[in-house]
Amino acid sequence: MNRDSRTDDFYIGYLPKAPESLAKILVRIVTALILLGLLVGVLLVLGQSPFAASKFEYGQYREYDGVLEKRPPVLLTRDSRFLLVAAGKHGLAETVQGMEGKSVRLKGSLIQRGPDAVLEVLPGSLQASLSGIPNTSRLIDLGPIKLTGEIVDSKCYLGVMNPGNGKVHRDCAARCISGGVPPAFIARDASGDIRTLLLTGPDGQSLNREVLAFVAEPIEISGRLVRSGSTLLLKADPAGFRHPGE
After folding, report:
1. Where would I find the H helices in the chain?
2. Is residue 1's pLDDT more than 50?
């Protein structure tokens, strides 16, 4: 008696081997799903924005001589300017009190993103110096300005973390700013390039907890734009910060 060939494709789960025709179909389906998954993964990777060209020379300390500027603390050397921060999620404002305008020597680990540079100061290395470097910088008031952008913590954004902005970095930025790391405001200039502005109060005072509610959110700030050497500062009252459209 001839057996109906269609019954050969009937498969019961506890049998050790599936029929050959059914196995071929399953192999094709599984192979297609694997290839589809690989394709989706490649497309997701290619669709990501590239990381910024930044660096943090963690644990590598060099010696620097210069003049200490205040609010926020900046070291002016013969050919560069460096924002100063402490190790971890802490600022350096309290450490440098009384040393503003004086020549100092310190050891720091470089943090850099484009033209903007930060030094994470090695604890205990800051001391008075006789470097003789003149403090030639002065504040230049560039006038009132209104900008839309995002508040970040300057240390992470400029190189310690990548990316160091956006909602994924919000909690970290809030802790850094709470600890005294100077907040920065990132916004696009008239040519479309992203610029980093150090954010202070209207009189140049340090800001931290006053801005936490606005970190990593698109906001509009009206204030005065000030230049000190190559450093741009935005002096603004947090009470006037607004979300776009409000």
Report:
1. 20-46, 154-155, 170-178
2. no
Whether the domain at 54-128 and the domain at 139-240 fall into the same CATH topology:
yes
Residues in the chain: 246
Could you tell me the pTM of the whole model? 0.74
Q: Is 237 helix (H, G, I), strand (E, B) or coil?
A: coil
Helices (H), 47-125: none
Domain boundaries in the chain? 54-128, 139-240
**Token pair recorded at residue 85:** 């921060």
CATH number at 54-128: 2.40.50
- pLDDT tens, 143-165? 999 999 999 999 999 988 877 88
**Topology of the domain comprising 139-240:** OB fold (Dihydrolipoamide Acetyltransferase, E2P) (2.40.50)
Residue whose tokens read 């003149």: 134
Enter the DSSP assignment of 158.
Answer: I
Strands 74-76 and 54-56: what pairing? unpaired
- Closest of 88, 91, 127, 89 to residue 107, by C-alpha: 127
